Amino acid sequence: MRRFTTVLTVLLGLFPVSFGLQYVLDGPGAAAGFGIDPWPTGVAAGYFAVKGIRDMVLGLNFLVLLALGQRRAAGILMAVAVPIAFTDAIVVLTHGGSLATALGIHVLTGLIVLADAWLLLRERPAAETSHPTPVPAHS
């Protein structure tokens, strides 16, 4: 289960990094899949960079904590980040987006992040799960 949780956490870190890069490099193209149409143009299109950087930093935080072996901290950060996905769903629904996009992309993402947070937070520290090596008796 630990390996599954690690892979899921890595993926949940890489996805926002990739989405963020898309928003920074091609905001209008990336925005098409978010669920709101039309997106801002002109000066207001600067929000693409804001969203992109937010997503990249969030994903990098997950990855850095995991790389440093801070699985519990990664789980806490994931649990704290869940409202982002649910808020994105609400924004889609209140700005003319479809229910399918709100549920199928944003709510589903929130539920997966919540599940991964739960998996990370229920893990026992490695010291508790490892079996001590018996020390040979001295003669």
TrEMBL record:
Keywords tagged on the record: Membrane, Transmembrane, Transmembrane helix
Keyword Membrane appears in the UniProt entry: yes
Higher taxonomy: Bacteria, Bacillati, Actinomycetota, Actinomycetes, Propionibacteriales
Pfam families xref list: DUF4267
The protein's name in its UniProt record: Uncharacterized protein DUF4267
Transmembrane segments: 44-68, 75-93, 99-121
